UniProtKB/TrEMBL annotation:
<dbReference type="InterPro" id="IPR025721">
    <property type="entry name" value="Exosome_cplx_N_dom"/>
</dbReference>
<dbReference type="GO" id="GO:0000467">
    <property type="term" value="P:exonucleolytic trimming to generate mature 3'-end of 5.8S rRNA from tricistronic rRNA transcript (SSU-rRNA, 5.8S rRNA, LSU-rRNA)"/>
</dbReference>
<dbReference type="InterPro" id="IPR012340">
    <property type="entry name" value="NA-bd_OB-fold"/>
</dbReference>
<feature type="region of interest" description="Disordered">
    <location>
        <begin position="63"/>
        <end position="92"/>
    </location>
</feature>
<dbReference type="GO" id="GO:0005730">
    <property type="term" value="C:nucleolus"/>
</dbReference>
<dbReference type="GO" id="GO:0000176">
    <property type="term" value="C:nuclear exosome (RNase complex)"/>
</dbReference>
<dbReference type="Pfam" id="PF14382">
    <property type="entry name" value="ECR1_N"/>
</dbReference>
<dbReference type="GO" id="GO:0070481">
    <property type="term" value="P:nuclear-transcribed mRNA catabolic process, non-stop decay"/>
</dbReference>
<feature type="compositionally biased region" description="Low complexity">
    <location>
        <begin position="73"/>
        <end position="91"/>
    </location>
</feature>
<dbReference type="GO" id="GO:0071035">
    <property type="term" value="P:nuclear polyadenylation-dependent rRNA catabolic process"/>
</dbReference>
<dbReference type="GO" id="GO:0003723">
    <property type="term" value="F:RNA binding"/>
</dbReference>
<dbReference type="InterPro" id="IPR039771">
    <property type="entry name" value="Csl4"/>
</dbReference>
<dbReference type="GO" id="GO:0006397">
    <property type="term" value="P:mRNA processing"/>
</dbReference>
<dbReference type="GO" id="GO:0000177">
    <property type="term" value="C:cytoplasmic exosome (RNase complex)"/>
</dbReference>
<dbReference type="InterPro" id="IPR019495">
    <property type="entry name" value="EXOSC1_C"/>
</dbReference>
<dbReference type="GO" id="GO:0071038">
    <property type="term" value="P:TRAMP-dependent tRNA surveillance pathway"/>
</dbReference>
<protein>
    <submittedName>
        <fullName>Exosome complex component, N-terminal domain</fullName>
    </submittedName>
</protein>
Length: 257
């Protein structure tokens, strides 16, 4: 157990070898190692004294305060983890910015694909920084609050209309699609019109377009329809598959969370 465990884990992160740990809730085993399946604090449950068993690794969605729920089993957080705050003050509902800024994470729909770039229409700004500044307490909802409804509507081809002209427009240039082999990028194989893309703003651009990048594992296509019109699911970082016909299509796929 010489390796240091992370205090917080992200999906797909290696936690430790199966020779030292057993996989608990929120983790899975792959290639003789325990990996995180969800994002959250890493919890280590020691083996029973006198037994030859191994400590159990799990990933929790939140750290429970002492004395609240399921306290029958002693657990310890991974080395370096900070104790959870015990304040009972409820957190205010997260409100998202409506104006993109540099480093903002956004969801956008692809409206046009060209040889050197793809044009997208920004649907939601996911960046939470400064979202509570200057917010009127009497405001309880905004256009960005119901993300599921926005994406469901955006993924429906029947809703692709001139409303895109009223949204912020952005470009994803060929060199900003991925971090490696940029010269081998073929835009038609990365994006298709109607795809929903997660990207990061890298430049405010000019008065017409922002500039986005998808050159990270967690960025890229998150929702797409096949040529047959069916929703697809990711099978690798560069391929999605039709849930009905099983036909595969190439995309620059965002890593699922």
């Amino acid at each position: 157990m010489a390796s240091t465990l992370p205090a917080l884990a992200i999906p797909g992160q290696r936690l430790g070898p199966v020779t030292s740990y057993s996989a608990g809730p929120g983790t899975h085993v792959q290639q003789s190692n325990v990996y995180a399946s969800i994002a959250g604090p890493v919890v280590v449950e020691p083996a029973q004294p006198g037994s030859k068993g191994k400590a159990t690794l799990s990933v929790s969605r939140s750290i429970r305060a002492p004395g609240t729920g399921n306290a029958s089993k002693p657990v310890t957080t991974a080395p370096g983890a900070k104790p959870a705050a015990t304040s009972a003050t409820p957190k205010p509902k997260v409100k998202y910015n409506t104006l993109p800024a540099v480093d903002s994470v956004v969801l956008a729909r692809v409206t046009r694909v060209q040889k050197r770039q793809a044009t997208v229409s920004i649907l939601v700004v996911l960046d939470e920084s400064g979202s509570t500044q200057g917010v009127n307490p009497s405001q309880t909802t905004s256009d960005n609050d119901n993300i599921e409804a926005i994406l469901s509507s955006a993924a429906n081809p029947e809703n692709h209309s001139s409303s895109d002209e009223l949204r912020f427009q952005a470009l994803i240039r060929k060199e900003d699609v991925r971090a490696v082999e940029k010269d081998r990028v073929v835009m038609d194989e990365m994006f298709r019109v109607g795809d929903i893309v997660r990207g990061t703003v890298i430049s405010l651009g000019d008065q017409s377009f922002y500039y986005l990048t998808t050159a990270r594992n967690d960025l890229g296509v998150v929702m797409a329809r096949s040529e047959a019109g069916n929703m697809m699911f990711p099978v690798s970082w560069k391929e999605m598959r039709d849930s009905v016909t099983g036909q595969a299509e190439m995309r620059k796929v965002a890593r699922p969370f």
